[in-house]
Amino acid sequence: MSYQFQKMPEEKVFKDPVHRYIHVRDQLIWDLIKTKEFQRLRRIKQLGTLYLSFHSAEHSRFNHSLGVYEIVRRMIDEVFYGRPAWNDEDRPLALCAALLHDLGHGPFSHCFEKIFGTDHEEYTQAIITGDTEVNAVLSRVHPNFPEEVAEVINKTHPNKLVISMISSQIDADRMDYLQRDAYYTGVSYGSFDMERILRLMRPTENEVMIKESGMHAVEDYLMSRYQMYWQVYFHPVSRGGEVLLNRCFKRVKVLYEAGYEFKSLPTYLLPFFTGNVSVKDYLRLDETVVFYYLQEWMEEDDTILSDLSSRFVNRDLFKYLPFDGSIITIGELTELFERAGIDPEYYFVSDSFSDLPYDYDRPGSNNNRKPIHLLTRSGRVKEISTQSVIISSITGVNRMDYKLYYPKELILNIKDLEVKGAIINLLNELN
Amino acid sequence: MSYQFQKMPEEKVFKDPVHRYIHVRDQLIWDLIKTKEFQRLRRIKQLGTLYLSFHSAEHSRFNHSLGVYEIVRRMIDEVFYGRPAWNDEDRPLALCAALLHDLGHGPFSHCFEKIFGTDHEEYTQAIITGDTEVNAVLSRVHPNFPEEVAEVINKTHPNKLVISMISSQIDADRMDYLQRDAYYTGVSYGSFDMERILRLMRPTENEVMIKESGMHAVEDYLMSRYQMYWQVYFHPVSRGGEVLLNRCFKRVKVLYEAGYEFKSLPTYLLPFFTGNVSVKDYLRLDETVVFYYLQEWMEEDDTILSDLSSRFVNRDLFKYLPFDGSIITIGELTELFERAGIDPEYYFVSDSFSDLPYDYDRPGSNNNRKPIHLLTRSGRVKEISTQSVIISSITGVNRMDYKLYYPKELILNIKDLEVKGAIINLLNELN
Amino acid sequence: MSYQFQKMPEEKVFKDPVHRYIHVRDQLIWDLIKTKEFQRLRRIKQLGTLYLSFHSAEHSRFNHSLGVYEIVRRMIDEVFYGRPAWNDEDRPLALCAALLHDLGHGPFSHCFEKIFGTDHEEYTQAIITGDTEVNAVLSRVHPNFPEEVAEVINKTHPNKLVISMISSQIDADRMDYLQRDAYYTGVSYGSFDMERILRLMRPTENEVMIKESGMHAVEDYLMSRYQMYWQVYFHPVSRGGEVLLNRCFKRVKVLYEAGYEFKSLPTYLLPFFTGNVSVKDYLRLDETVVFYYLQEWMEEDDTILSDLSSRFVNRDLFKYLPFDGSIITIGELTELFERAGIDPEYYFVSDSFSDLPYDYDRPGSNNNRKPIHLLTRSGRVKEISTQSVIISSITGVNRMDYKLYYPKELILNIKDLEVKGAIINLLNELN
Amino acid sequence: MSYQFQKMPEEKVFKDPVHRYIHVRDQLIWDLIKTKEFQRLRRIKQLGTLYLSFHSAEHSRFNHSLGVYEIVRRMIDEVFYGRPAWNDEDRPLALCAALLHDLGHGPFSHCFEKIFGTDHEEYTQAIITGDTEVNAVLSRVHPNFPEEVAEVINKTHPNKLVISMISSQIDADRMDYLQRDAYYTGVSYGSFDMERILRLMRPTENEVMIKESGMHAVEDYLMSRYQMYWQVYFHPVSRGGEVLLNRCFKRVKVLYEAGYEFKSLPTYLLPFFTGNVSVKDYLRLDETVVFYYLQEWMEEDDTILSDLSSRFVNRDLFKYLPFDGSIITIGELTELFERAGIDPEYYFVSDSFSDLPYDYDRPGSNNNRKPIHLLTRSGRVKEISTQSVIISSITGVNRMDYKLYYPKELILNIKDLEVKGAIINLLNELN
Predict the structure, then answer these.
(1) Which Gene3D superfamilies match (chains A, B, C, D) (predicted)?
(2) Both D130 and D219 in a single domain?
(3) Per-residue pLDDT in tens (0 to 9) along chain D, 431 residues
(4) Which end of chain C is more exposed for a tag (fewer CB within 10 A), N or C?
(5) Which of D75, D74, D126, D131 is nearest to D100 (CA)?
(6) Percent of chain A whose pLDDT exceeds 70
């Protein structure tokens, strides 16, 4: 039998707290899991700095990737198999894309990418199609197969149905991470009835639809997603950790560019300073490496770098205040910080975040998201927000939030009492 | 109010998946959690290499330490408070010892300590009584207080009751880790009725006893413990990871002592090579640092070091076989490995482990464990194994298990066919 | 110490799957639980006919009543105690009202009350203030105390804060039943973070408010409630059971009034036929009695009564169809059923149900519900729908649903082919 | 396709809190569930009087029967299918036997059968092979099929493998009830890793074996069973309920035989008084009927009957004391009760219970239980207690427990102070 359909003599299972067990019978999947690029995902946390507000959120992307694979496997084997719109020849493609969809994530992607201009989606593609163990395994299926898998992940593949299984507004990726992140943080918000949604999914030519009787279950899923964003993912304390780490990276880059002489050179980061990053360079980076450098930087002579990295490592975070996003406020405070001798570039950060829980491409919307479609018994198709007042209430509603971050003690220590008073007054007005 | 009884204006809580919430109202506890030595526990996994067999076991000792604190806090505030044998003046001592009991753990303690001769219990004491942030906080209670906390942890303190809350055969430490490790691995074995055990705990002069009606609940707890050891903690795959890591450390030490010139010197390890380790040196080490070095070693010219570290990082583990522990078998195989040109020092490892689920100091026993005592309604005290045939069946029964670890492919590649055949035959006999 | 504050020497606990344990320390509460009127609640299911669609929903009102008590106890002892707006003298009043709030429920209240004109709220009051064991226990507190408890339950008591703990849009009653009914049915919809809501509840002069930071948790709670109504409580299959039972009661009443001679007289129901029901008569009725009569009615000569009761007992339910609520449709079908010789009074039932998930008394609203109020740090009060687009989207939105119920086989057996065809056509149009 | 393999066009599911969903695709199973004999199981509690000590244990045998079916279905479809020792032609037989194994249970079987001499196993057979709806459905498979199903249930069928799936020391029946009863009571003892046991079950010619690697999981399962017996099923309070109910039945029978004139004759019980019970008579009895009669008996003139039934209905249970089972004690107390004018036949009950958690037919054992067999990789078979010290410690160990039940207040009210004192002294000695 050809490699992509080859079964191992006995099924292997991974004990998993979210899905009970993850079942692997395909040799192809087993081989992919064993590659060093996939194993590297164990050294990258699924939720970056979130452990700073939810101490138990320490799980890795390895963890989550297995979960997405398992959901796609169940979709296919328990629901899609045998239905006219599903071609079981696409099973290996769907499973591989599910397993590998996060392969290009780096350490603390959100802050890292902003400073070094890398893009984890591009690197996912580069790792899959480059000179890697993953590529060698996938190529055994067919020389074009790695490219195909990459195309599914970056959504350019012609098979829209398979794409929608892995990236859409109700896909295996989200269904896994909502439940998984809820499990590890210990919150109840991420719970929804995945079993019911799976049972009611129907493959169609271009997308996965949900049987109309599943409308309330989808509603509940979208609410879970909404709650997880505002109650967990956007927690201001862990955003404060990101802010700090971002300033660390920025400082180190600035110092490097200015010719600063490091006591200990962060070797693995050098390609990122120069912007000439090979796949191999990229893969060498993970969160253990970043943490090692952070601990080295704590000993550097540059006081900004050593202060920021020490703050991050020891969780001595900035204080935060909500504000209305006004540029005037930022401007005034920036000036006052400068007058006080506190570099606002590193010690005064305004951070905004926003969430659009559900939307779709329609007149007036600024996005190309695909709608969630319900399928009636008679075969009609309905966009879900037309069926639910609750979903309708959040459709296209982009909610923004703004926070200011700054180190409280530095302000309390300002010598110039007039400046100090002005800063404190302005901040008090915000609170 | 004196510092050790000072309450914060509002209770702080940590969301915790095992205990729902961890409640902190004491300023002293809050200050300890914020110290960098306590924060460092976030960078040390609770279960070392266990993630190699249970992928979701990625939680840290920080996590567990908060849990032990919470259980002791509940013991005191919900059960002991107001009972004659409990003196609430000991509350700060018990809480601090609970929180800090694992403070001296290093990265992958089990393998690390064997090679470098460090001892995490000694370092717990050293950190608490040395020049650290933790010491500064504890000293605010009383100059002697750090010493007292350390004495509770190393079991030399005169207050045996407080010691038994944190280290005995049914203590807060075990009750937390059994449940926590079960939660993160996703197994069901760690479940027992802690709520019932807590309700039935009674402080007495020298130890915590359990009301007689809790006998079955304790039985169930001991069975959970037993199952966790054999089904989870002793999993041969993760033991294989330990074996590999142990050999990495060994090789690096051997190379250093032999004057090998490292491409990149593992600076933070140097004090451990020379055996002259300060508290500061010790604290600098965590699992991110070890992982960084492992990745550096993958690039070293020494093929044994680069092979072993690469195997560990990329989870390319040795194969294992059960055997009967016989020295003859080991001897024969060692010789054959040598003849095949595979260094048995690094590539042929026999590993044994054993567990004694419950025992106590009595004629014929070789240990000084304190028994679990049941307390009858009329005030009599009974050792638990006299009341339960199940506990009796495991009391003092030390179960051993032996495994041989070796790299399968290296054996398959042996050129000398006679030697190769002899090795394979011997291994097959074991299986 | 006076009776209402008297503690038992040792706390009693009930193992409860929802709250882990229910804790009783007050003699008063213990005495109430032992009364026969409270024990009677074991013979009345919490969810009536819902077991016909969710087979595992077999729990009793006894169960739920203990749960509501436990939540109120925790509110008081863990959150309210010591806060200025809370007077701990009101504790017994709040606990008793919580425990007894459902005392007057009868068997299958919803269908029963429609036919026999009884009202469970009136009977709750009558039982509490009448010649009962519950009354005797409450009177030991104070001769007026039963009256006071009844006033809290029927919301006429001057203490609005205590009333809002037990009946408001976010009260102990709902918080218990959402979680409990979810637990027994096995659905995930009823989950919300009660621990967080409890921690953020604040007693004020006239009501319980929620700290502003709990806004998302309340949102989640309201969504749980909404989902439970549409996914569980309104399940059309169990509504079909209610429809049948309602027609059974109706038939039996019609027969009695027409002088029909029962083979076996339903003695306990006689007072309900004549409308002259004493508290003692009322208490004699429970679901075991109703089921006994149903089984007797299966043997009666009246074919309608024997058919309907047999259908209910053996779960041979009517078929249902959604429709738009139009009176014309009902009229046409009623006439056709009559022509076909099927009595539409019993065999053709239109049923409507509606839910208003959240609302409050305001211009244009037709209800006197009290709003859910958020309390800001600075002490301002905000109505919750002004803070949440999701809650706003369901505020005041009364959703209706209509179903037609009829026995499929009877229609298939209609002799007059023209009438049969006309009925089938009309029903098909609805579908 | 023949009826026994006929699939419905769409799978039906039952939401179940223990197994998430119960899946039915076979028309045969669906038809059986709809029969009135199977629906009757909704009116019989799985755990009889256990709700008197665990208030939430109110679930029915209907509930459990679906669960056993689901486990057998999963065994077959997920594990056995395709293995040489499994013949898929036996699937309908196994599924039907699983679903129907408890069909003959009556109300509160344990006490009822002792008085009226009925046997639920005989009635299971009688219902399956008699003139019933269940029989009609089963006969559609083959005229002999009902008989075959009954033979599997009563263990006389030649297919020992199928029998062992449903009744052995590790069967679907026990695996369901341990988990289900734990779920409903809210205790943690019933948890074990069923998923792992299922995965490791292997069909062999005459029985289901477990792969050797599942030894610890079976150990854990046997411990769960052991704990459930001693912590839940044998709870002395609910045994006290059984004792009362038993005495009610006894009294009513004695009265009937003595020609007592009942105010209201318990019609459905008459055949049981005379011992001439048809299947139809038997099926008419359920717990709602028994409860109706109990409420009628509360009004009878016979003070013993009215007192006992009123005590049971209102949960005014006897007090209990442990004792050593000595006949002398019982004799002395019986005589004293008589002298005090309290009829010991009804008001002084000694009750014993015992459990043998695991055993098998071997020299010296008095039972014909089949051992649990482990299957090694090389195909050898090992009896489990030879592999586990824990199981070995409970093998063949029959643990007994004795309780005395009596009404405390009656004793306190004894007029003859000498007799009263003697009774109280004797009871105190026991305590």
Answers:
(1) Hypothetical protein af1432
(2) yes
(3) 799 999 999 899 999 999 999 999 999 999 999 999 999 999 999 999 999 999 999 999 999 999 999 999 999 999 999 999 999 999 999 999 999 999 999 999 988 999 999 999 999 999 999 999 999 999 999 999 999 999 999 999 999 999 999 999 999 999 999 999 999 999 988 889 999 999 999 999 999 999 999 999 999 999 999 999 999 999 999 999 999 999 999 999 999 999 999 999 999 999 999 888 999 999 999 999 999 999 999 999 999 999 999 999 999 999 999 888 888 889 999 999 999 999 999 999 999 988 898 999 888 777 789 999 999 988 999 999 999 989 998 899 888 899 999 999 899 999 999 999 999 999 888 76
(4) N
(5) D126
(6) 100
Q: Which of A36, A180, A288 is the best substitution to test chain B (most B C-beta atoms within 10 A)? A: A288
Looking at the 3D structure of chain D, how many domains does it have? 2
A179, A196, A226 - which closes a domain = A226
φ, ψ of residue D300 in degrees (nearest 5): -70, 160
Using a CB-CB cut-off of 8 Å, the residues of chain D touching A195 are 20-21
What is residue C159's DSSP assignment? Answer: -
Q: Are residues B48 and B151 in the same domain?
A: yes
* The three-state (H, E, C) secondary structure of C103-147, written as one string: CCCCCCHHHHHHHHCCCHHHHHHHHHHCCCHHHHHHHCCCCCHHH
Between chains, do A188 and C187 touch, taking CB under 8 Å as contact?
no
Distance CA D297, CA D321 (A): 28
> Contacts of residue A13 in chain D, CB cutoff 8 Å?
199
Name the pTM for this structure. 0.94
Q: Of the candidates A226, A251, A280, which is a domain's last residue? A: A226
A contacts of D20 (beta carbons < 8 Å)? 195
D251 shares a domain with D224: no
Question: Can you list the alpha helix ranges (DSSP code H) found in C140-193?
Answer: 145-153, 160-166, 172-185
Instruction: Answer yes or no: do B243 and B219 share one domain.
Output: no
Q: Give C314→chain D minimum CA distance, Å.
A: 5
Whether residues A62 and B39 touch (CB distance < 8 A) is answered with no
Q: Clarify whether residues C140 and C252 are in a common domain.
A: no
With contact defined as 3+ CB pairs under 8 Å, the chains touching B are A, C, D
C279 found inside a domain: yes
> Does B146 fall in a domain?
yes
Strands of the sheet with A319-322, listed across from one edge? A319-322, A399-406, A349-355
Judgement on whether residues B31 and B150 belong to the same structural domain of the protein: yes
Domain that holds residue D287: 246-353+401-430
Interface test with D, best of A23, A70, A196, A211 (most D CBs within 10 A): A196
Are D392 and B393 an interchain contact pair (Cβ–Cβ within 8 Å)? Answer: yes
Checking ipTM against 0.90, whether it exceeds it is yes
CATH number at residue B153: 1.10.3210.10
Are A283 and A343 found together in one domain? yes
D192 CA to chain A: closest CA distance, Å?
A: 13
Beta carbons of B199 and C20 less than 8 Å apart: no
Look at residue A363 and tell me if it is in a domain: no
The residue type of D335 is E
CA closest to B37 among chain A residues: A314
Which chains lie within 8 Å of chain A at 3 or more CB pairs, if any?
B, C, D
| CB pair distance less than 8 Å for A42 and B63 | no
Do C124 and C37 fall within a single domain? yes
Q: Using CA atoms, how far apart are residues A109 and A115, in angstroms rounded to an integer?
A: 10
Q: Is residue C12 part of a domain?
A: yes
Q: At what angle do helices B287-297 and B236-257 cross, to 10 degrees?
A: 70
